[in-house]
Amino acid sequence: MPAEFLMWIPAAILLLLLVLTLTAGALFSLYRTDGASGGGRALWCAVILLLPVGGALAWLVVLQHRTRCEPAVEGGSPETAG
Q1: What is the DSSP string of the chain?
Q2: Spatial separation of the C-alpha atoms in residues 64 and 82, rounded to whole Å
Q3: Is residue 49 part of a domain?
Q4: Number of domains in the chain
């Protein structure tokens, strides 16, 4: 096996770890989000798992857009607002 081939192994491992971390972070964020219902959550989960980088980035963009569009609630959680 040529030495040039062996030089790519650490970069490939680092890239794999980055993709796994991004995917796991997006799935954890999806799990903790109240805005996604059962069917929507399952669809997002499938998108994130089938397209690890694109799906995870799309979910994080949608999540950021949702949190920016929600009105700020003073004095605690949205459940206490009335």
Answers
A1: --HHHHHTHHHHHHHHHHHHHHHHHHHHHHHH-SSS-HHHHHHHHHHHHHSHHHHHHHHHHHHHHHHHHSPP-TTS-GGG--
A2: 25
A3: yes
A4: 1
**CA-wise closest residue to 55 among 33, 11, 25, 82:** 25
What's the pLDDT tens digit per position in 29-52?
A: 988 887 677 888 999 999 999 999
Q: What's the pLDDT at 4? A: 78
Residue 32 lies in a domain: yes
> Residue 39's domain spans which residues?
3-70
Residue 55, Cβ neighbours under 10 Å: how many? 20
Rounded to whole angstroms, the Cα distance separating 45 from 31 reads 9
| 46 falls within a domain | yes
Helices 9-32 & 52-69 angle (0-180, nearest 10)? 40
